Amino acid sequence: MKRVFKLLICIIPVLLICGCTKKVTKEIKLVQMEQFIIQKTEDDKIENYTFKNDKYEKITDNNVKDKYLLYYNEKFNTTEYNDSGSILIQKGDKNVKMPDNTEFIKIDDKCSRVFYKSADGDSYSYGVINIDDHKNINVDITLSGNCIDWKDSSTLVFYGVVNNQAALYYYDINTKKAKMAARIDDGFVNYLEVIGGSIYYLVNSYDGSSRMINLSDDRSASFNIEVPYKNVFDIKSINNTAFIMAGNSERVDLYFITNGKIEKVNYDFPKNIRQDSFLYLKDKDVYFIGLDEENNEGLYLFSSTDNEIQLKSPLEAKNHIAKNN
Protein backbone atom coordinates (compact mmCIF):
# COMPACT_ATOMS: atom_id res chain seq x y z
CA MET A 1 0.00 0.00 0.00
CA LYS A 2 1.45 3.34 -1.07
CA ARG A 3 1.61 5.81 1.82
CA VAL A 4 1.43 9.59 1.63
CA PHE A 5 2.01 11.82 4.66
CA LYS A 6 0.14 15.07 4.10
CA LEU A 7 -0.54 17.83 6.64
CA LEU A 8 -2.89 20.76 6.41
CA ILE A 9 -1.76 24.26 7.32
CA CYS A 10 -5.12 25.09 8.87
CA ILE A 11 -6.28 22.63 11.53
CA ILE A 12 -8.42 22.56 14.63
CA PRO A 13 -6.09 22.00 17.61
CA VAL A 14 -8.47 19.86 19.69
CA LEU A 15 -11.17 17.46 18.44
CA LEU A 16 -12.44 14.78 20.75
CA ILE A 17 -15.47 12.66 21.54
CA CYS A 18 -16.24 10.79 24.72
CA GLY A 19 -19.28 9.00 26.02
CA CYS A 20 -21.84 10.94 28.00
CA THR A 21 -22.32 9.64 31.50
CA LYS A 22 -25.80 10.98 32.19
CA LYS A 23 -28.91 8.80 32.09
CA VAL A 24 -30.66 10.29 29.20
CA THR A 25 -33.50 11.06 26.98
CA LYS A 26 -32.55 11.03 23.34
CA GLU A 27 -34.06 13.73 21.16
CA ILE A 28 -33.43 13.06 17.49
CA LYS A 29 -33.69 16.05 15.18
CA LEU A 30 -33.53 15.92 11.40
CA VAL A 31 -31.53 18.89 10.16
CA GLN A 32 -30.10 19.51 6.68
CA MET A 33 -26.31 19.83 6.39
CA GLU A 34 -23.81 19.42 3.56
CA GLN A 35 -20.68 17.68 4.81
CA PHE A 36 -19.59 15.04 7.26
CA ILE A 37 -19.19 15.85 10.93
CA ILE A 38 -16.27 15.45 13.31
CA GLN A 39 -17.47 15.71 16.90
CA LYS A 40 -15.64 17.15 19.87
CA THR A 41 -16.55 16.68 23.53
CA GLU A 42 -14.72 18.42 26.33
CA ASP A 43 -15.90 18.78 29.95
CA ASP A 44 -19.31 17.37 28.93
CA LYS A 45 -19.64 20.09 26.29
CA ILE A 46 -20.16 19.00 22.70
CA GLU A 47 -19.10 20.93 19.62
CA ASN A 48 -19.46 19.80 16.02
CA TYR A 49 -17.32 20.63 13.01
CA THR A 50 -17.62 20.02 9.30
CA PHE A 51 -14.54 19.17 7.26
CA LYS A 52 -14.99 20.78 3.86
CA ASN A 53 -12.44 21.75 1.20
CA ASP A 54 -9.66 20.58 3.53
CA LYS A 55 -10.76 23.00 6.25
CA TYR A 56 -12.63 22.64 9.54
CA GLU A 57 -15.72 24.78 10.01
CA LYS A 58 -17.50 25.01 13.35
CA ILE A 59 -21.24 24.41 13.07
CA THR A 60 -23.29 27.31 14.38
CA ASP A 61 -26.79 25.93 13.66
CA ASN A 62 -28.48 25.80 17.08
CA ASN A 63 -30.08 22.44 16.25
CA VAL A 64 -26.72 20.81 15.61
CA LYS A 65 -23.81 22.78 17.04
CA ASP A 66 -23.82 21.27 20.55
CA LYS A 67 -25.77 18.02 20.03
CA TYR A 68 -24.48 14.48 19.92
CA LEU A 69 -25.21 13.20 16.42
CA LEU A 70 -26.45 9.62 16.24
CA TYR A 71 -26.85 9.41 12.49
CA TYR A 72 -27.46 11.52 9.45
CA ASN A 73 -28.31 11.07 5.80
CA GLU A 74 -28.45 14.59 4.37
CA LYS A 75 -30.86 15.18 7.25
CA PHE A 76 -29.11 14.87 10.61
CA ASN A 77 -30.31 13.02 13.67
CA THR A 78 -29.06 14.69 16.84
CA THR A 79 -29.54 13.84 20.49
CA GLU A 80 -30.16 15.90 23.59
CA TYR A 81 -29.88 14.39 27.04
CA ASN A 82 -32.21 14.74 30.01
CA ASP A 83 -33.91 12.58 32.62
CA SER A 84 -37.27 11.52 31.22
CA GLY A 85 -36.06 8.38 29.48
CA SER A 86 -37.97 8.80 26.22
CA ILE A 87 -36.86 9.24 22.62
CA LEU A 88 -38.28 12.21 20.71
CA ILE A 89 -37.96 12.53 16.94
CA GLN A 90 -38.34 15.96 15.38
CA LYS A 91 -38.74 16.45 11.63
CA GLY A 92 -39.47 20.04 10.72
CA ASP A 93 -42.45 21.07 12.83
CA LYS A 94 -43.45 17.45 13.54
CA ASN A 95 -42.53 15.69 16.78
CA VAL A 96 -42.85 11.98 17.49
CA LYS A 97 -42.35 10.43 20.91
CA MET A 98 -41.17 6.84 20.76
CA PRO A 99 -42.68 4.23 23.12
CA ASP A 100 -41.22 3.93 26.60
CA ASN A 101 -38.16 1.69 26.99
CA THR A 102 -37.20 2.01 23.32
CA GLU A 103 -33.63 0.74 22.95
CA PHE A 104 -33.01 0.82 19.20
CA ILE A 105 -34.42 2.68 16.22
CA LYS A 106 -33.82 2.68 12.47
CA ILE A 107 -35.11 5.49 10.26
CA ASP A 108 -35.71 4.80 6.58
CA ASP A 109 -33.81 6.69 3.88
CA LYS A 110 -36.73 9.02 3.22
CA CYS A 111 -37.10 9.89 6.92
CA SER A 112 -40.76 8.93 6.65
CA ARG A 113 -40.83 5.90 8.94
CA VAL A 114 -38.94 4.68 11.96
CA PHE A 115 -38.59 1.09 13.17
CA TYR A 116 -38.22 0.69 16.92
CA LYS A 117 -37.28 -2.05 19.35
CA SER A 118 -38.72 -1.63 22.84
CA ALA A 119 -37.99 -3.62 26.00
CA ASP A 120 -41.10 -5.35 27.34
CA GLY A 121 -40.21 -7.20 30.54
CA ASP A 122 -37.95 -10.11 29.60
CA SER A 123 -38.75 -9.76 25.90
CA TYR A 124 -38.96 -7.11 23.19
CA SER A 125 -41.75 -5.60 21.16
CA TYR A 126 -41.28 -4.11 17.70
CA GLY A 127 -43.11 -1.54 15.66
CA VAL A 128 -42.99 1.14 12.98
CA ILE A 129 -44.15 4.72 13.41
CA ASN A 130 -44.99 7.00 10.50
CA ILE A 131 -43.18 10.25 11.26
CA ASP A 132 -45.69 12.43 9.41
CA ASP A 133 -48.98 11.14 10.87
CA HIS A 134 -47.71 9.33 14.03
CA LYS A 135 -49.44 6.07 13.03
CA ASN A 136 -48.04 3.15 15.03
CA ILE A 137 -47.82 -0.19 13.19
CA ASN A 138 -47.10 -3.39 15.10
CA VAL A 139 -44.27 -5.54 13.69
CA ASP A 140 -44.62 -9.22 14.59
CA ILE A 141 -41.13 -10.70 14.20
CA THR A 142 -38.49 -12.57 16.20
CA LEU A 143 -35.34 -10.51 15.73
CA SER A 144 -31.74 -11.43 16.52
CA GLY A 145 -29.96 -8.49 18.13
CA ASN A 146 -30.28 -5.35 16.05
CA CYS A 147 -29.81 -7.04 12.67
CA ILE A 148 -32.52 -5.14 10.82
CA ASP A 149 -32.70 -2.37 8.23
CA TRP A 150 -35.02 -0.84 5.66
CA LYS A 151 -34.99 -2.36 2.16
CA ASP A 152 -37.42 0.38 1.14
CA SER A 153 -40.08 2.44 2.92
CA SER A 154 -42.51 -0.51 3.00
CA THR A 155 -40.09 -3.40 3.54
CA LEU A 156 -37.78 -4.35 6.38
CA VAL A 157 -35.00 -6.91 6.02
CA PHE A 158 -33.96 -8.73 9.20
CA TYR A 159 -32.13 -11.73 10.59
CA GLY A 160 -34.33 -13.78 12.88
CA VAL A 161 -36.56 -16.82 13.22
CA VAL A 162 -39.79 -17.62 11.38
CA ASN A 163 -41.40 -21.05 11.83
CA ASN A 164 -38.31 -22.28 13.71
CA GLN A 165 -36.01 -21.40 10.80
CA ALA A 166 -33.20 -18.89 11.35
CA ALA A 167 -32.68 -16.93 8.15
CA LEU A 168 -32.66 -13.55 6.49
CA TYR A 169 -36.22 -12.36 5.87
CA TYR A 170 -38.13 -9.56 4.19
CA TYR A 171 -41.03 -8.18 6.21
CA ASP A 172 -43.79 -6.30 4.38
CA ILE A 173 -45.15 -3.51 6.60
CA ASN A 174 -48.48 -3.44 4.75
CA THR A 175 -49.28 -7.17 4.61
CA LYS A 176 -47.44 -8.00 7.86
CA LYS A 177 -45.96 -11.08 6.20
CA ALA A 178 -42.37 -12.34 6.23
CA LYS A 179 -40.66 -13.91 3.22
CA MET A 180 -37.30 -15.68 3.33
CA ALA A 181 -34.48 -13.83 1.58
CA ALA A 182 -31.58 -16.20 2.36
CA ARG A 183 -31.12 -19.32 4.49
CA ILE A 184 -28.48 -19.23 7.22
CA ASP A 185 -27.75 -22.84 8.20
CA ASP A 186 -24.05 -22.92 9.06
CA GLY A 187 -23.67 -19.96 11.40
CA PHE A 188 -25.27 -16.72 12.53
CA VAL A 189 -25.50 -13.11 11.36
CA ASN A 190 -24.10 -10.40 13.65
CA TYR A 191 -24.09 -7.43 11.27
CA LEU A 192 -26.56 -6.28 8.63
CA GLU A 193 -26.91 -3.06 6.67
CA VAL A 194 -28.72 -2.05 3.51
CA ILE A 195 -27.00 0.39 1.15
CA GLY A 196 -28.62 1.43 -2.10
CA GLY A 197 -30.89 -1.60 -2.08
CA SER A 198 -28.01 -4.06 -1.54
CA ILE A 199 -28.05 -6.11 1.68
CA TYR A 200 -24.62 -6.47 3.28
CA TYR A 201 -24.31 -8.97 6.11
CA LEU A 202 -21.61 -10.85 8.02
CA VAL A 203 -22.03 -14.55 8.81
CA ASN A 204 -19.86 -16.07 11.55
CA SER A 205 -19.82 -19.80 10.85
CA TYR A 206 -19.78 -22.52 13.49
CA ASP A 207 -16.41 -23.75 12.16
CA GLY A 208 -14.79 -20.43 13.11
CA SER A 209 -14.69 -18.86 9.66
CA SER A 210 -16.54 -15.71 8.59
CA ARG A 211 -18.14 -14.66 5.32
CA MET A 212 -19.15 -11.25 4.05
CA ILE A 213 -22.15 -11.38 1.74
CA ASN A 214 -23.81 -8.84 -0.51
CA LEU A 215 -27.32 -9.86 -1.53
CA SER A 216 -28.16 -7.57 -4.44
CA ASP A 217 -30.67 -7.42 -7.27
CA ASP A 218 -27.66 -6.61 -9.43
CA ARG A 219 -25.86 -9.94 -9.79
CA SER A 220 -22.63 -8.22 -10.81
CA ALA A 221 -22.56 -6.49 -7.40
CA SER A 222 -23.32 -9.60 -5.32
CA PHE A 223 -20.56 -11.50 -3.55
CA ASN A 224 -20.05 -14.19 -0.92
CA ILE A 225 -16.43 -14.36 0.23
CA GLU A 226 -14.45 -15.49 3.27
CA VAL A 227 -13.09 -12.61 5.36
CA PRO A 228 -10.45 -12.38 8.14
CA TYR A 229 -12.62 -10.53 10.68
CA LYS A 230 -15.44 -11.38 13.11
CA ASN A 231 -17.02 -7.95 13.61
CA VAL A 232 -18.06 -5.14 11.28
CA PHE A 233 -18.32 -1.60 12.64
CA ASP A 234 -19.27 0.30 9.49
CA ILE A 235 -19.57 -0.14 5.74
CA LYS A 236 -19.83 2.14 2.72
CA SER A 237 -20.32 1.23 -0.93
CA ILE A 238 -19.94 2.86 -4.35
CA ASN A 239 -19.74 1.45 -7.89
CA ASN A 240 -19.73 -2.20 -6.76
CA THR A 241 -16.90 -1.57 -4.28
CA ALA A 242 -17.57 -2.01 -0.56
CA PHE A 243 -15.37 -0.30 2.06
CA ILE A 244 -15.56 -2.09 5.39
CA MET A 245 -14.31 -1.06 8.83
CA ALA A 246 -13.89 -4.35 10.67
CA GLY A 247 -11.85 -6.23 13.26
CA ASN A 248 -12.13 -6.89 16.98
CA SER A 249 -11.94 -5.07 20.32
CA GLU A 250 -8.15 -4.68 20.06
CA ARG A 251 -7.61 -3.78 16.41
CA VAL A 252 -9.77 -2.36 13.64
CA ASP A 253 -8.75 -2.13 9.99
CA LEU A 254 -10.13 -0.84 6.71
CA TYR A 255 -10.81 -3.31 3.90
CA PHE A 256 -12.35 -3.04 0.47
CA ILE A 257 -14.09 -5.69 -1.59
CA THR A 258 -14.32 -5.40 -5.35
CA ASN A 259 -14.72 -8.00 -8.11
CA GLY A 260 -15.22 -10.67 -5.46
CA LYS A 261 -11.81 -10.07 -3.83
CA ILE A 262 -10.92 -8.50 -0.49
CA GLU A 263 -7.90 -6.32 0.25
CA LYS A 264 -6.69 -4.78 3.48
CA VAL A 265 -5.97 -1.06 3.26
CA ASN A 266 -3.97 -0.12 6.37
CA TYR A 267 -1.10 -2.00 8.01
CA ASP A 268 1.15 0.39 9.96
CA PHE A 269 -0.20 3.63 8.50
CA PRO A 270 -2.28 4.14 10.46
CA LYS A 271 -1.64 1.44 13.02
CA ASN A 272 -5.26 1.21 14.13
CA ILE A 273 -8.69 2.76 13.49
CA ARG A 274 -10.97 4.23 16.12
CA GLN A 275 -13.68 1.62 16.65
CA ASP A 276 -16.52 3.87 17.80
CA SER A 277 -16.09 6.31 14.94
CA PHE A 278 -17.48 5.80 11.43
CA LEU A 279 -16.47 6.07 7.80
CA TYR A 280 -17.38 8.89 5.47
CA LEU A 281 -17.41 8.24 1.72
CA LYS A 282 -17.06 11.06 -0.78
CA ASP A 283 -16.82 9.97 -4.41
CA LYS A 284 -14.16 7.23 -4.17
CA ASP A 285 -12.39 8.66 -1.12
CA VAL A 286 -12.96 7.23 2.36
CA TYR A 287 -12.33 9.34 5.48
CA PHE A 288 -11.72 7.73 8.87
CA ILE A 289 -10.13 8.37 12.27
CA GLY A 290 -6.83 6.52 12.60
CA LEU A 291 -4.27 6.03 15.38
CA ASP A 292 -0.48 5.86 15.11
CA GLU A 293 1.87 3.72 17.21
CA GLU A 294 1.58 6.14 20.14
CA ASN A 295 -2.24 6.23 19.82
CA ASN A 296 -2.20 9.79 18.51
CA GLU A 297 -5.28 10.31 16.38
CA GLY A 298 -5.63 11.85 12.96
CA LEU A 299 -8.11 12.30 10.15
CA TYR A 300 -7.06 9.97 7.34
CA LEU A 301 -8.22 9.58 3.76
CA PHE A 302 -7.97 6.46 1.60
CA SER A 303 -8.08 7.20 -2.12
CA SER A 304 -9.26 4.08 -3.93
CA THR A 305 -8.38 5.75 -7.24
CA ASP A 306 -4.70 6.19 -6.30
CA ASN A 307 -4.65 3.28 -3.84
CA GLU A 308 -2.99 5.41 -1.17
CA ILE A 309 -3.59 6.68 2.36
CA GLN A 310 -3.14 10.34 3.29
CA LEU A 311 -3.02 11.94 6.72
CA LYS A 312 -5.27 14.96 6.22
CA SER A 313 -4.84 16.38 9.70
CA PRO A 314 -3.40 15.37 13.08
CA LEU A 315 -5.98 15.55 15.87
CA GLU A 316 -5.51 15.92 19.59
CA ALA A 317 -7.30 13.68 22.12
CA LYS A 318 -10.25 11.56 20.94
CA ASN A 319 -12.24 12.08 17.76
CA HIS A 320 -15.43 10.81 16.20
CA ILE A 321 -16.98 10.93 12.73
CA ALA A 322 -20.75 10.78 13.12
CA LYS A 323 -22.56 7.84 11.51
CA ASN A 324 -23.83 8.67 8.05
CA ASN A 325 -25.07 7.15 4.83
Automatic annotation (TrEMBL):
It comes from the Bacteria. This is DUF5050 domain-containing protein. It comes from Inconstantimicrobium porci. The lineage of its organism: Bacteria, Bacillati, Bacillota, Clostridia, Eubacteriales.
